[in-house]
From TrEMBL:
InterPro entries: HATPase_C_sf (IPR036890), HATPase_dom (IPR003594), His_kinase_dom (IPR005467), HisK_dim/P_dom (IPR003661), HisK_dim/P_sf (IPR036097), Histidine_kinase_KdpD (IPR052023), KdpD_sf (IPR038318), KdpD_TM (IPR025201). One of its GO terms (molecular function) is ATP binding. It is a multi-pass membrane protein. The lineage of its organism: Bacteria, Bacillati, Bacillota, Erysipelotrichia, Erysipelotrichales. SMART domains: HATPase_c, HisKA. Residues 236-450 form the Histidine kinase domain. It comes from Faecalibacillus intestinalis. This is histidine kinase. SUPFAM superfamilies: ATPase domain of HSP90 chaperone/DNA topoisomerase II/histidine kinase, Homodimeric domain of signal transducing histidine kinase.
Amino acid sequence: MKEKLRYLVYFGIIISIELFCSLTLNSMGIRKENILMVFIVGVLLISTFTKGYFYGLLASIVSVLCFNFLYIDPNYDFHISDPNDFMLILFFLMTSVIACSLTDRFQKQIIISKKNEGISKQLYSLSERLLNVSGIEYILLKGKQYIEESIQIKTNISLEIKEENKNVIPIIGMNRVLGSIEILSHQGLNEDQMIIIKAAANQLGNALERELTYLEQEKIKVAMEREHMLNSMLRSISHDLRTPLTGIVGASQLMMNQDHLTNEDVYSLAKDIHDQAHWLTQIVENILNMSKIESGNLVLHKNLEVVDDLIYEAIQHLPELEKRNVVVDVPQDLLFINVDGKLMVQVFINILNNAIKYTKEKDQITIHVKKLEDEVQFMIKDTGSGISKNILDHIFEEFVTDTNVSNDSQKGIGLGLAICKAIIQAHGGKIWAKDEKDGACFIFTIPSDKELNV
């Protein structure tokens, strides 16, 4: 109603202005053919400021009647005596109608252009929202927020593929249906709202396709890395198992085939068999522990253990320490910690084994224990070749070994320190390594109970 009233006001004002202008030009002696242009301009202005054909056609008829009444002989009469005037009025009416039609079409094109511009801006806004969003849930959430903000309609967006109908819009990726947009409103949607929803479905399809492609690539990458790691582990295991087994077989065959061996020779060969078997046991123990850790089946059986006993038990399991200068520095008072004794001995064995690899005979290995406020600190330091800078930051990862060390001294497959880290963290402690000028230093802490060590 307000719009119609406004158009009528425009109509009255413009008709009044064109009449005033035409009368002014007529008083100045301007010919009626030129005055006719004033009425055409008036019709165009009315068509521009109003919508539809009605007001433009009405303006054309009123303008023709006014022009005929005022300027066609006989004046102040609607009778037309001259055929030229009749043709002039006829062409004026035709021109006015055509101008009204073109103006109306132009206005509709402007409305469509503005509508398309608005939809393009909305789609750009959605694309911008989805550009840096990762995660399928967040993509679906952003799409839902966009649709509900744009057209005020409740929706449910999911990866569930539903049968397409007027309330379900499929989300299509490259060559597959990835999900659906379900419209929860019971009110019918107009064409513009459906365009926005379908366009949003296309944008969501592109974003989901990108995310799913990335996830699939990551899965393939992880699978390839696992396969590569498995192959590396199998090669390392086969190599490290074959070495002690070869030594055991060689020493045992020598003992069986040689009848004139002295007691010293027999003892030496038996000791070699013992050392190789012990080495083999350590490798198998590390493999079993790592499999438990990765499968989440590592269970701690904690008991109160004396620190001194754990250290000396680990030393007894490493005969090669006899060739090193081992110094054990522990507090004079008995120090208890609540740990899984077997696993803690394994930690000491792995770190000491590592020290043996990178030291020579007569080099010093120091085991220092310090009681702190709420934890016990263990430091195992050697005077060997130290830690290479290229592995220092990754030394506690699986299958990390120093490639600068000869294969003969590099016993193990790079699991020992990774197992130490897992065991220490399972006990609530921390472990780290330092490369010092005169060798390597490994430090780890275990939480302690203050009441036990007073």
